[in-house]
Each structure stands twice: as structure tokens, then as C-alpha cells.
């Protein structure tokens, strides 16, 4: 790797550029990285960078549209999920009410059984009372009167029997009234149970319909997400072609000082100190900013980590950026779904020399010269970290 700590003038920059031309290693065009990608790339002649960028832009629009549809479906799924949760709660509450109603019916049945037993007992007493009265009154009143020791005894016997009969009859009437009340309450509870069970059935039908709609919505969302994945793969293939048309130098093995622990691990297998995945462009530029002694916010953890999102993150943290490159800046391209971040090592007029990771989508370190105004990566902005 070239030592960038010294100041560059136009002549030095020209030497670097000339030297770089003879040390170029073109990125391999890997169109088949995703099986089944059906993007129509011109077969009769190689597409120009502008054509590839136009294709990438068209794919990006499709990705955005599909993402928006998937997002809308996700919101709809959340709403349906909330409705299902409400239905589950209603059904659970109704099941509790049904259980209470059934218990009440059983309780009333027990009371009814007891009342019936009391009524049967009163009937038995009345039967015995009548039998006793009949034994006493089976003869004529005259005979009963004559058979009594006195007129007062006759009256007492007669009054006792009539009083006993009347008391039993009154008790029986009370039991019958109680039984009728219990039956009325039981019928009310049975009607309530029927209404509750009907409501439960309706809720369960609604629940099934909502679940089916949720499954359908999630299925549509998954289909759009799959389309987004396929479109990203197509766009990645185009970005690889753009990289292959750009003169790139893969360095002297020092990888710009990028830590070995991150460089030797499989790409995207771990997070760096700023919440970026290893061997990605943003991880490398975050490292370079921090290595220079400047503050590098933990955007991967707290904000947006993709290269094209760094301008938004810079806005949020009050970090300036513009179209004018300076040594130590981070150059941001918004081309492609993720964009690209590069560390500015040298500047000569409107030409910048950058170091970077994953420009070829293979997680490798590289260096290259690009125009700040008309590069293969589209319009560039330069973030001036303080």
C-alpha cells in the first residue's frame, strides 16, 4: 500500500495514477452468483457503464416499490395480528363466562333437586297426615263425639288434624313456588348459555377468517420480500460488472491497516466497534476515521449503517458534507441498494484516490482513482468528519 501521510501535489498524484494503471487487476464478473436471476443484460454487446447504471437505477425503483408494498402488507399484518389478539382475549373471556354460566346452571339444578326432595317430603307428610285424619274421621262426627271423653277433647283432636294438614299444605305450596323460581332462573341461565355459545361460535369463525387473511397477507409480504431479494441479486450482478469496468488496484497486502481479526473472519460474520459488519465498505471507512483520531459515531448500532445512509446519519449528527473532496473524507456513493463508502487518501483537483473494502462484492481491500464529478459510481458526496 502507498504511504498517504505525505502531501500530494498534482505531479505526485499523476505519478500515482500512472503507476496504478500498470498494477490494475480487474474484478471478475460474476453474473451467476444467484441462481435463477433473470435480468436481461445485453448479450450482443457489452453494456456500457452508463447502461449498467441505468439498469441498476431501474432495479432500484423496483426494489423500492416492492419494499413499499411489503411494508404496507407488514403493517396490515400487524393490524390483523392485533385484531386476532383482541379476538383471542374476547374468546377467553367468553369461555370464562360460559364456564361460570354452566356452573350457575349446575348450582340451580342442585337447588332444584333439593327443592324437589323437600316437596316430596312435604307430600309424604301430607299423605301421612291425611291417613291419620281419615283414621280419626272415618266414623261419623256423632260417633267421634260420642267416643270422646269430652266435647273439648273432640275439638282438640279435630283442630290438631286440620292445623297439621293446613301447615303441610302451606309448606308444600312454598316449596312449589321456590321450585318454579329456580326453574325460571335456570331457564334464564340456559338461554344466556345459548347466547354465549352462539357468540363464541361467531367469534371463532371471525378468528378463522382473520387468521386466513393474516396468512394470506404474510404470504404476499413474503412474495414481495423474495422479489426484493431477487432484484437485489440482479443489481449486485450489475454492480459487479461496473466494478469490473473500473480500474482497481488490490494493494500490497496491508489492507489499509484494517484489523486482522476482522479481515480474516468470514465476511459479515461479526460486528466491528461501530456496529458495522466486517469486510464491508462502511466497516473499513469507520475504522479509518477512528484510526485518524477523529470521532466515528456508532452508526451501525444507533442509526443507519449502509453506505448510502451515511449522509442521513451525518445530517442527524450535524457532520458536514458536500461535493468538495478533502484528504481524510469519506466519499459516499448512493448507487445500488446499499451504496458505497470509500476513504479519501489523496486529492488532485477533482480526481480522488480512495481505499475501500468490498468494491467487488467479494469482501476484499482495494484502491482506485475516481472522478468526484463523473465516476462509475455516480454522484459522490464527501463527509468531513471533525
What is shown here, in short?
With 386 residues, the chain is α+β, with helices and mostly antiparallel strands. The chain is built from 8 helices and 6 strands, in the order H-H-H-H-H-H-H-H-E-E-E-E-E-E. Helices cover 59% and strands 9% of the residues.
Structure notes:
- The structure is a single chain.
- By secondary structure, the protein is α+β, with helices and mostly antiparallel strands.
- The chain folds into two domains: 10-27 and 248-383, endopeptidase domain like (from Nostoc punctiforme) (endopeptidase fold (from Nostoc punctiforme), Alpha-Beta Complex), CATH 3.90.1720; 81-230, Helix Hairpins, CATH 1.10.287.
- Helices cover 59% and strands 9% of the residues.
- Strand 4 (351-357) and strand 5 form a beta hairpin.
- Helix 2 runs antiparallel to helix 4.
- The longest helix has 94 residues, at 151-244.
- The model is unreliable at 1-44 (pLDDT under 50).
Amino acid at each position: 500500500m502507498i504511504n498517504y501521510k505525505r502531501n500530494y501535489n498534482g505531479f505526485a498524484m499523476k505519478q500515482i495514477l500512472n503507476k496504478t494503471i500498470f498494477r490494475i487487476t480487474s474484478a471478475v464478473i460474476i453474473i451467476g452468483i444467484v441462481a435463477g436471476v433473470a435480468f436481461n443484460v445485453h448479450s450482443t454487446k457489452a453494456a456500457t457503464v452508463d447502461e449498467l447504471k441505468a439498469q441498476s437505477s431501474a432495479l432500484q425503483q423496483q426494489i423500492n416499490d416492492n419494499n413499499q408494498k411489503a411494508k404496507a402488507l407488514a403493517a396490515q399484518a400487524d393490524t390483523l395480528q392485533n385484531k386476532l389478539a383482541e379476538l383471542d382475549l374476547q374468546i377467553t373471556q367468553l369461555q370464562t363466562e360460559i364456564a361460570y354460566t354452566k356452573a350457575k346452571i349446575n348450582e340451580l339444578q342442585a337447588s332444584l333437586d333439593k327443592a324437589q326432595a323437600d316437596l316430596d317430603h312435604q307430600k309424604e307428610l301430607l299423605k301421612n297426615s291425611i291417613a291419620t285424619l281419615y283414621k280419626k274421621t272415618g266414623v261419623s262426627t256423632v260417633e267421634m263425639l260420642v267416643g270422646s271423653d269430652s266435647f273439648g277433647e273432640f275439638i282438640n283432636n279435630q283442630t290438631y288434624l286440620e292445623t297439621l294438614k293446613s301447615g303441610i299444605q302451606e309448606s308444600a305450596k312454598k316449596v312449589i313456588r321456590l321450585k318454579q323460581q329456580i326453574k325460571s332462573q335456570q331457564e334464564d341461565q340456559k338461554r344466556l348459555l345459548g347466547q354465549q355459545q352462539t357468540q363464541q361460535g361467531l367469534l371463532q369463525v371471525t378468528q378463522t377468517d382473520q387468521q386466513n387473511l393474516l396468512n394470506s397477507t404474510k404470504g404476499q409480504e413474503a412474495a414481495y420480500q423474495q422479489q426484493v431479494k431477487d432484484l437485489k441479486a440482479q443489481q449486485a450482478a450489475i454492480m459487479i460488472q461496473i466494478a469490473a469496468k473500473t480500474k482497481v488496484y488490490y494493494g500490497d497486502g496491508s489492507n489499509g491497516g484494517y484489523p486482522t481479526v476482522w479481515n480474516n473472519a468470514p465476511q459479515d460474520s461479526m460486528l466491528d466497534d461501530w456496529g458495522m459488519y466486517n469486510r464491508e465498505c462502511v466497516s473499513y471507512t469507520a475504522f479509518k476515521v477512528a484510526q485518524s483520531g477523529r470521532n466515528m459515531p456508532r452508526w451501525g448500532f444507533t442509526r443507519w449503517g449502509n453506505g448510502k445512509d451515511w449522509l442521513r446519519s451525518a445530517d442527524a449528527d450535524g457532520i458536514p458534507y458536500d461535493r468538495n473532496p478533502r484528504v481524510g473524507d469519506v466519499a459516499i456513493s448512493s448507487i445500488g441498494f446499499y451504496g458505497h463508502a470509500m476513504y479519501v487518501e489523496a486529492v488532485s483537483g477533482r480526481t480522488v484516490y480512495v481505499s475501500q473494502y468490498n468494491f467487488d462484492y467479494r469482501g476484499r481491500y482495494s484502491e482506485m482513482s475516481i472522478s468526484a464529478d463523473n465516476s462509475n459510481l455516480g454522484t459522490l458526496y464527501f463527509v468531513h468528519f471533525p
